[in-house]
Amino acid sequence: AKVCLSIAVRYAATRLTVGPTGKSDTPILCYQLQNRALMPQLATTIALTFGLTKVKNAWAFQPEDGSDHLNVVRMCCAIKPFSSWHLGNVVTTARERCGGQGYLS
User: Fold this and answer.
1) How far apart are CA 73 and CA 56, in angstroms?
2) Using one digit for the tens of pLDDT, what is the confidence trace for 40-89?
3) Interior CA angle at 53 toward 105 and 44, to 5°?
4) How many CB atoms lie within 10 A of CB 80?
């Protein structure tokens, strides 16, 4: 999701379209429709990154007696489908908002 959003945001920042002056001098990222599509996805990706880091650390540093293993497995089972669904949404949104050129950039 991070790579896909990185490509989409960079492409939207460099792709110029006709602006108020009548010339192609306005990046498509300046348009509210583009921002409303990409920025919530970016915020969710950042939040999921923090959550995944917490789960990875909880898995790596479990107590040796196994007292916390069930809670760690629950966290893994909760975050994995959510991050997978989010990835699907990000890829679809980025493709729709940037077109095929966003993948070729």
Assistant:
1) 11
2) 999 999 999 999 999 999 999 999 898 899 999 999 999 999 999 999 99
3) 55
4) 12
CB-hemisphere CA count at 13 Å for 58? 17
Instruction: Give, as one character, the DSSP assignment of residue 28.
Output: G
The backbone region for 31, taken as left when phi is positive above 0, alpha when psi lies in -120 to 50, beta otherwise, is beta
Helix (H, G, I), strand (E, B) or coil at 89: helix
Task: Compute the distance between CA of residue 42 and CA of residue 9 in angstroms, rounded to an integer.
Answer: 9
For 20-50, how does the pLDDT look when each residue is reduced to its tens digit (9 = 90+)?
Answer: 888 888 899 999 999 999 999 999 999 999 9
Q: Cα separation of 29 and 17, whole Å?
A: 10
